[in-house]
Amino acid sequence: MRILIVEDETAAYENMVEMLAEIDPAIEVLANAESVSQTVDWLKSNPAPDLILMDIHLSDGSAFSIFEQIEIETPIIFTTAYDEYAIEAFKVNSIDYLLKPIREKDLIRALDKFSKLNRTDVMQYLSQLTQLAPQSTSYKDKLLIPVHDKLLPIEVKDIAFFYTTDKNTSVYMKDGDCYAYPKSLEQIIATLNPSGFTRANKQFIISRSSVKNITIWFDSRLLVTLDIETPERIYISKNKAMEFKAWMVNEN
């Protein structure tokens, strides 16, 4: 078994490596990523591991922001210092969790649970990862768009979608207007109400009210058509399809 450990505490990482070696000497720890950015870079540059052991609180932010930047189809076991109330969410939505300080018997339990999962189980858990992220209660209702030497206020409710390509982001309005916007999709999505907007893929954030129809594609992806023209087709990956359909009918 090949494991990636995402952990920013050296002592916690070394303790986990020692326990894994005692549990099964055949386990190979591929690397230790200590931040969101390191994790994203490693996953982009290396073959997928068999399993990820991931701390939620990393040096540069929440581990949940990783899922906004890269699609992960590898099973994840979370490590967390959350209280018992918050952990109820992990029981339902994650493959398993390890409460810090991690005990060997708990790690054995988590690995055993992982070994019994089939691919369908894994994909279902991955589709629900965003439900574990703490939700903000304050969202923007206006944006200020720089246009020449002025700032143009626009209503968020009038936005159809955000689109990024070659590190340039644009805001497309429902009336067809388009403006350059100097922020990344990662920065933008954190300020928007998730009931109204979702990160469809690496290129698009879309408004729920602008979705015209959804086509089930041959490889289990979804093809989303908006009520205005888009620069390219909008596809929802198969591991996000279940979550997207629930979002469309407001069941998140």
Identify the notable features of this structure and list them briefly.
single chain; 252 residues; alpha/beta; five-stranded parallel β-sheet; five-stranded antiparallel β-sheet; 8 helices
Task: Spell out the blueprint of helices and strands.
Elements: E1 2-6, H1 10-23, E2 28-33, H2 36-45, E3 51-55, E4 57-58, E5 61-62, H3 66-69, E6 76-80, H4 84-93, E7 96-99, H5 104-115, H6 119-127, E8 142-147, E9 150-155, E10 159-165, E11 168-173, E12 178-180, H7 185-189, E13 197-199, E14 204-207, E15 211-216, E16 222-226, E17 234-236, H8 241-248
Structural summary, described in words:
The chain is an alpha/beta fold and 252 residues long. Helices cover 29% and strands 31% of the residues. The chain contains eight helices and 17 strands. The strands form five sheets. It has a five-stranded parallel β-sheet with strand order 2-1-3-6-7, with helices on both faces. The two termini are 34 Å apart. The relative contact order is 0.10. The model has no long low-confidence stretch (mean pLDDT 86).
Q: List the total number of helices.
A: 8
Report the span from N to C terminus: 34 Å
Indicate the overall shape: elongated
Instruction: Indicate the percent of residues in helices.
Output: 25-40%
Mean pLDDT: 86
